[in-house]
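Section handout, structural biology tutorial.
Before the tutorial, make sure you can parse a SMILES string by hand: atoms, branches in parentheses, ring closures as digits. In the record below the ligand is pyridoxal-5'-phosphate, and the chain has 364 residues. In the tutorial you will relate the predicted structure tokens back to the input. Do not try to memorize them.
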Amino acid sequence: MVNYKLLTPGPLTTTRTVKEEMLTDHCTWDEDYKKITRSICSQLLELAHVSDDEYAAVLMQGSGTFGVESVISSVVPEDGHLAVLINGAYGRRIAQIAKYHKINTEAIEIPYDRYPTAEDAEKVITECGITHLAIVHCETTTGILNDIKSIGEVCKKHNVTFIVDAMSSFGAVDIPAAEYGIDFMISSANKCIQGVPGFSFIIARKSKLMECKGRARSLSLDLYDQWETMSKDGKWRFTSPTHVVLAFLKALDELKAEGGILGRNKRYTDNHDMLVEKMNEMGFKAYIRPEIQSPIITTFEYPEHIKFDFDDMYTFIKERGYAIYPGKLDGMNTFRIGNIGEIYLDDIEKLCGIIKEYVNTKLS
Ligand SMILES: Cc1ncc(COP(=O)(O)O)c(C=O)c1O
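Predicted structure of the complex:
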């Protein structure tokens, strides 16, 4: 098997120590295991700068989409009216989930290279009588970082429930949930906390969560029920991904050791800055302008100065130890490089050396 590092939006390259935690089999009703779940939940609240008086952390089996679907299908009532501010594929996915559950939804599409503004939120809320508003924080489709603070202020003003998909940003970008007026925030184990795939988690405002009793449109994704069971003593409602949970606890320790979210943000930002600088030098242009670009993942347009074939370059890079990602934009040729996971400047330097080698083969 080829062993390569992942420069992708997740799953990410994780540390050996995180992976080694998965060598232990754990009993799910054992007190030690339940304690681990309780510790994870309280650490997640700390990372979101909220107290357990006001907020709860709920872990949900499945990938990130399961977490998003759990929130959308459990939180919006029958007579609710959801707005989704969309500037990428993951915003679209939220609207698609709502459609599956027959939720009355306004899907507001915005060009993918700009972010939804407070005015966009104000307009849809006041014109359509919106009760719930959802947005993606870092749209991993492009790497753009949306302005959730301003949108949150508008939601607060109109008493609209504010749902944030912070899948690819939580752990790497500081998100003070209460200060931003967030009612439900979703992320997953295999993103910037640098665990492995297997569960998502939701940071939920308790007063709003309590209103969701009996509201869910799905048994397995019932957010209220999941919380009610988990909050008793840390036992999960159905079989939990035990190995993944142990790995996640270790990943949280390692995040702390790196200096928490600020420390991790610095490493990812340094990775991103070096990447863009070196890619620019080689004639690759970033799709998102720097002021609104996240340190998470960067989209590059296909270069015009060489005959470019992404699959060919992908294979060339993979054979030399790294995996990058195709683009996700309709009608535009792009590819993406992730800056997240156990990736350092040395990796970015090596990657750019490999890309330079590839470009030179096309120029000669
Ligand atoms: C912003 C965002 N939302 C949702 C998802 C979906 O997560 P998953 O693929 O784990 O279901 C992703 C995945 O990359 C994402 O980046």
